[in-house]
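Structure record:
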Amino acid sequence: MEPQPALNLIPTIQQAITNLLTTHEPEFLRFGYGLFMSLATIVIAWQGIKMMLSGDGVGEQMFEFAKLLLFVAFGYSFITFYESPLPGIGVSFSNLISDQAHYFQSILEARAFDNLYRHLDELGDHFMQPDAWSILANLIYWTVLVLIALAKAVSLAVIAFGLIASAVCALVGPIFVPFFIVPKLDWLFWGWLKAFIQYSFIPVVAIAFLMIFEQFVYRYVTTLPPTVTSAEYGVYGLQAVAVILTFCTGILLVPSLTASIFSGQGGLSIVPGVPRMVRRF
């Protein structure tokens, strides 16, 4: 199998995301700003009506009103500087999250993705295609090649999913930011913010996983003979299948791992139903 050239798919996805946000985000910002002004007017008017009809002391009422104005001021700064640089910081509110995730990606070995592709190609090159009459050897050989292609596709899919999901959260953010000032509806804002942070860090966790597993694949490839013949497929072929399946399972669990990191949970299972069955017994 000829080594495949490194594809700059991640930069291509990032460029497409940038074009999407540049084109459509201003419309969402206009809608979010209008929604914020409407909600702020309603909330302030409602607080004023409560003050008029309340029998509490003026000092306590003014404290509640001042607290409301402070929340409105924070919400106004969130929507105003959602895409404009914050004074004294130079980074917008949304970019505080996305840029930090990109920074951590750059700290990690950015070429781990390309290195993994190359090592998987080297793994496939070690296996010599058996003759047509070796049915079991052919089955193992083509299983290894299919799993290598699957591993490449899955690694790209998980990273691309994190990038695209983060971009979607950034795009629709102006719809949820105004609810920061609405009592009992502020969970919409905090839920969006939590999702935005988690999805932004999926590529970071995925690249960290790739960086570690890429070294494992590299060291495993060095233990293989230069050419794996049909007679050795029963040993090395099954080992390669186990290694690639382990990688595919791990990279597919990256979104769940990221969610567990932010929620403080643990005990991820390959089969989600197993822990529930164990708890029943």
